[in-house]
Design goal:
By secondary structure, the chain is α+β, with helices and mostly antiparallel strands. Helix 1 packs parallel to helix 2 and helix 8 crosses helix 9. The longest helix is centred in the middle third of the chain and has 16 residues. It is globular, with a radius of gyration of 19 Å. The N and C termini lie close together (6 Å).
Length: 288
Amino acid sequence: MWIADAFAKINLGLHVLERLPNGYHRIETGFCFIEWSDRFEVLPSSQYRLEFSDSAIPVDESNLITKAYRLFETEAGLKSQYRFSVQKKIPAGAGLGGGSSNAALTLRILNKLEKTGLSNRELEEMAATLGADVPFFIEGVTGIGTGTGQQIEPVDIQPDGWIVTVWPGFESSTPVAYQQCTPNPDPEFSLRETLLGEEPAQWPVFLENDLEGPVIRIHEMIGYMKDQLYDFGALYAAMSGSGSTVFGIFEQDFVAINAYESFHRLGYAVNLTRPGFKPDYGIYFKEN
């Protein structure tokens, strides 16, 4: 058995710059990781199988793990078949990139188990056909995404603070969020300069997610949760991606833990990430 973790991301700001003729959008955003992850267990099998801890998740050809598996099989070939068992913890439709992270890990696992020898660059090119933010999860390093989010400039923007991430319990539609957003090709403040040059305490002034306003108009609860994070003492709070998850960055551990425990007591799915967190991208062999 081989085991590995697929980690979630949050977006540190998001500028929607332009609506492209193909229906996608040119954006600028900061990608960093949180300690929310899905656990993969992979075994050789007589045929491909996909199993989830949550039986409500579809395992058919619409699932991104299955899509990634079929893509790798077509592009690189498979000498063996595998069974994927996934302990699912990252909420779906939450703006955390759970499906994209799963797809990227599937490509990485198959590349290792099949000894295909594809480079990260080659895997990223393959991943780009699966979704805009799938390539980000191939490397496992933070960065600033441009274009449709697929062009990643690796820079260390992982916050040196505690991150409390809260899922309100419902999904947010990415297509609807972008439809309701008016692109702005000339933002007032540079996202890159803010992330690299300003402390999180200054981010509320300079760092914006252009999708936040349109989504909060549809789901007011997201705005209330963001306000609650500030009330708990967050230096900066925002919605991640197209929602529905919100997060807050805290300077002190006991303040972050209080916020985490308060949301947890209310029954929300919540995560606490340590300062300077770096994901473990290892794929490990485990004796049955």
